[in-house]
Amino acid sequence: MCVGDIGTVLKHLTLLNGDSRFPFFEKIDLQQAGIIGHSWGGAVSAEFCSVDDRCTVGVDLDGGLYGGAAQKGIRKPFLFLVGEGTPPYWLRAQMLFRPSLKARWAEVRKEENARWQTACGVSPDCQIETLPGVRHLNFGDLGILFRRPLYWLHPMLGRVGGQQGVRITREKVSEFLHRSLRDRN
Questions:
Q1: Interior CA angle at 86 toward 107 and 169, to 5°?
Q2: In this predicted model, what pLDDT tens digit does every residue of 112-171 receive, in sequence order?
């Protein structure tokens, strides 16, 4: 997935919205296009919202930043909803034998947070929220699909549980979108 893919989808939605042969004819409000993604998709949503005016509001669910979003900033209402930042499983294993890696992981998280802060620096409607007990896979279906006792062993699933992680994500995103779009009108 890349920024061009989002543009292509919006272009096709515009065509569907304008053609009376399709069931979506005049039913899509493209003036209120919310761009939302998880992980790499979240990074792409941030980049898209930093470069394309068709983005009205955006959400990055536990994704980093790439491209120019961290330097240019995001001038739209935007939410970075992030987990507690647990290192990948392969790094966690190495940390047991090399304590210096734990310090390096803390640096990586600090740098990531600084990039989010910079991206939000140009918009009063940009926010960063960290969810305690939520890890990378709690933002989507995988948190629900994993079953006990395996659930608690997976390093990218937090202590909140699968159903609760998705519920928290849904509530936070819905609240942000409703507030941002309501304030716009």
A1: 120
A2: 889 999 999 888 899 999 999 898 888 888 778 876 666 656 777 778 878 888 999 999
The angle subtended at Cα 172 by Cα 166 and Cα 173, nearest 5°, is 85
CA distance 50 to 28: 23
Quote the CATH superfamily of domain 32-184. Answer: Alpha/Beta hydrolase fold, catalytic domain (3.40.50.1820)
CA distance 128 to 139: 15
| Domain spans, the chain | 32-184
Tell me 158's DSSP state: -
Containing H/E element for 152? helix 150-153
Q: Is residue 27 within 8 Å of 4, Cβ to Cβ?
A: no
Tell me which DSSP letter residue 146 carries: -
Q: What is the CA radius of gyration of the chain?
A: 18
Q: Helix or strand or coil: residue 54?
A: coil
Q: Do 17 and 38 touch, CB atoms closer than 8 A?
A: no
Q: How far apart are CA 21 and CA 79, in angstroms?
A: 36
pTM beyond 0.85: the answer is: yes
User: 123-147 as b/e, with b when 16 or more CB fall inside 10 Å?
Assistant: bebbeeeebeebbbbbbbebbbebe
Distances (CA, A) of 134 to 8, 24, 139, 153, 178: 32, 36, 8, 14, 23
Phi, psi dihedral angles at 156 (to 5 degrees): -105, 10
